[in-house]
Amino acid sequence: MADDPLDEYIGAAAKLLKLPVKDAWKPAVRANLEVSMRLARLVDEFGFPDEAEPASVFTA
Amino acid sequence: MSALDIARAVTNKKSSALEATEAALARIAKHNPVLNAFTDVTAERARAKARAVDEAIAAGKNPGPLAGVPFAVKNLFDVKGLPTRAGSKINRDLPAAARDATVVERLEAAGAVLVGALNMGEYAYDFTGENIHDGPSRNPHDPTRMTGGSSGGSGSAVGGALVPLTLGSDTNGSIRVPSSFCGVFGLKPTYGRLSRARSFPFVYSLDHVGPLTRSTADLALAYDAMQGPDAADAACTTRPPEPVSGLLDQGIGDLRIAVAGGYFEKSVFPEATEAISRVVKALGVNRTVEIPEAARGRAAAFVISTSEGASLHLDRLRTRPDDFDPAVRDRLIAGAMIPASLIDRAQKFRRWYRSRVLELFKSVDVVLAPATPCVAPKLGQVNFVLDGAEMPVRAHIGVHTQPISFIGLPVVAVPVPLEPMPIGVQIIAAPWREDIALRVAAALEREGVVSAAPPRGI
Q: Which of B154, B254, B275, B374 is the most buried (most CB within 10 A)?
């Protein structure tokens, strides 16, 4: 599975973020990321107008 | 005794704050070895505070509406003199907190007496109440079962009647889930209503704090004492306090009440259906509403939670990954890797979803929904079978709470005392209308439909 895109992504992202990810953790990290991405895709597919504003809180 | 009864008895000199405190400390000493609700007992501090309350009363001063009421807080609230462990091993190395959390200060200013800090799921990223470092908090109705989390000790301590009042935090359900599993009342106020200052965060966009008690009147009493602006929490409202204690007897009057259909009727066990139907019948509800896009709301809450949580813990994930609960660590590592564009979309969806749900609240005042899909699972239980399909317990526990807290709606979780295990129902109102949700809870309590049952397991 070394050439699986998600495994490659996890490896690359871990390096970019300087996160140590031991081999033993990778299946669980992968499983969590699969769930997160499945839910993120559900949001992604919503269909956003250009006018959509994020809801983060900031008051100047 | 309820918080209200204790405060009245202490104020009227029928008993003393010190007696109430000693009684709570004795209950903790007796039952905590089973429940594992408390991680710290602040006995000396409590006795000193109780004596101060009794002295104030003796001197003819007003001791406050919570005079002598023993309470305890989830161990993510700063308690002066303790490191704020937030359920973790890593945070035990922090220096002791120099000052109490705002809400602890406000409760003590109202005469309440802090007796300790409570067990919780690591860094609040949890729905079970299990903790790998401190052991699980245990359900007061059956110690072989989960308390729910992440405010597990908060549910256990109130459900076990060790104290009449605890504080918890709720990002995706962490007050409402233990309230449901432990059979107590919980209030998750409107996002921004109560100050989170000097509590250890999880997800700034979604974190709330609130009380757990054995009655609606006690929820209102504690909530009123904690309200008010606080510049130390960027999300805290500037609205003045809007006290609710005097409004509980108004009844439901002509409130428009509906039950949540669609998403909220799916994937529930018969106990959750039974609890909802009892509440629906008592309130005479004959209307169903659909909260639009609730599944996507839950998904977006999940994405924001895991990514903001990862950002919060990024340095600790780099330097001390082996000191995390491995399950929490692996979730957070994955959360760090979600593309930024999708996180932004989750926040955009949040605004859209909020506007749609506010539209719904123009035609309805209260929405009823399950608090949890099931009664408390067994400790360590990984899967359950629902509608013939095996499902993971942890991921499923919060399906009904997440779409609601995602947009900060106020909710009272009320306990329906089913046998052998209780289960909660969410009473959901429009933003800033905690008063409405509490009025409905009080009406159900008066009718005997909801109540905190005596602990059956201790």
A: B154
Distances (CA, A) of B53 to B14, B24, B115: 14, 16, 14
* Residue of A36, A37, A51, A59 to mutate, interface with B, max B Cβ within 10 Å: A36
Interchain CB distance below 8 Å, A48 and B331: no
pTM over 0.95: yes
The tokens of B162 are what? 């060790």
Domain segments of chain A as ranges:
5-40
Task: Taking residues B113-136, report their average pLDDT.
Answer: 98
**Tens of pLDDT along B146-164?**
999 999 999 999 999 999 9
Give the span between the Cα atoms of B147 and B162, in whole angstroms: 15
Is B299 in contact with A59 (Cβ distance < 8 A)? Answer: no
Distance from CA of A6 to the nearest CA of B (A): 11
For an interface test with A, the pick among B330, B353, B394 (most A C-beta atoms closer than 10 Å) comes out as: B330
Residue with tokens 């979600």: B338
HSE value, Cβ hemisphere, 13 Å, CA-based, for B381 = 25
Ordered by where they begin, the domains of chain B are: 3-297+339-446 (3.90.1300.10)
Tokens of B14: 């029928």
Q: What is the pLDDT of residues A1-60, one digit of tens each?
A: 456 899 999 999 999 999 999 999 999 999 999 999 999 999 999 999 888 888 876 666
Backbone angles phi, psi at B212, to 5 degrees: -125, 135
Two structure tokens written together for B398 = 């919060």
